[in-house]
Write a structure and sequence with these properties.
This protein has 5 helices and 4 strands. By secondary structure, it is an alpha+beta fold. The chain has a 4-stranded mixed β-sheet. Helix 1 packs antiparallel against helix 4. The C terminus is likely disordered.
């Protein structure tokens, strides 16, 4: 083979090799570009997903905070309403002592307390009820010292020589009743309203020595 032909053959082979290398380089570049695009798209999707997750978490936290705030507001309003109902009941009891029914109520309170603690030596009432309580004791043949140390709205507390006592005051009776009524009142005002006027049987006054309760239930103290 002549030198000229050899050189031509070498140039052609080199050109072919260069063409193959250029083609491979283009394919590699295209692959790199495609992978880069895929990576960018994937990262974009991940970033979008992460942003959505953060937004959802923020929205959930906001809703939860709003719900907690609303619950706190409802609890506060309910507490205020319950306090108003209790105070209204106490005010009504306070007005009771200024009605014509009060002498009979005072007599019933004294009889109930005495039935639980018949050996009482002292009867505690308000200053306004000393005369009535004294007359009631005399009419029933009971010997006890009347003490005028109870606050309004009044009632009766009896005490024996051993320090045992029965608290049959209006305030204590309301506290005992309210402990049972508070939950149903809080759970549904309408249900509580529907029950107004329904017949009920109060429990008896609690004895400070743990003895049996009587027909009605004031509280007890020691």
């Amino acid at each position: 083979m002549a030198l000229e032909e050899l050189l031509t053959s070498l140039r052609e082979e080199a050109d072919a090799q260069i063409s193959r290398l250029e083609a491979q380089a283009r394919r590699d570049a295209e692959d790199l570009v495609a992978r880069a695009c895929e990576d960018a798209e994937r990262q974009g999707r991940q970033q979008v997903a992460a942003a959505r997750e953060r937004a959802a978490a923020l929205a959930a936290a906001t809703v939860a905070a709003a719900q907690l705030a609303a619950q706190a507001d409802r609890r506060r309003a309910r507490t205020e309403e319950l306090a108003a109902v209790e105070q209204g009941a106490l005010d009504a009891l306070g007005r009771l002592r200024h009605t014509e029914q009060w002498p009979a109520v005072l007599a019933a309170l004294l009889d109930q307390a005495w039935a639980v603690l018949p050996g009482a030596h002292q009867v505690h009432v308000t200053a306004a009820d000393v005369e009535s309580a004294t007359a009631l004791l005399e009419a029933r043949g009971r010997r006890a010292r009347v003490v005028d140390d109870l606050p309004e709205p009044g009632g009766v507390v009896v005490r024996d020589g051993a320090g045992r006592l029965v608290d049959n005051t209006l305030h204590t009776r309301l506290e005992a009743a309210w402990a049972a009524l508070r939950t149903p009142v809080a759970e549904g005002w309408s249900a509580a309203a529907n029950s107004i006027g329904a017949p009920s049987t109060p429990a008896g006054p609690a004895r400070s020595d743990g003895g049996p309760a009587g027909p009605l239930a004031p509280g007890s103290r020691t």
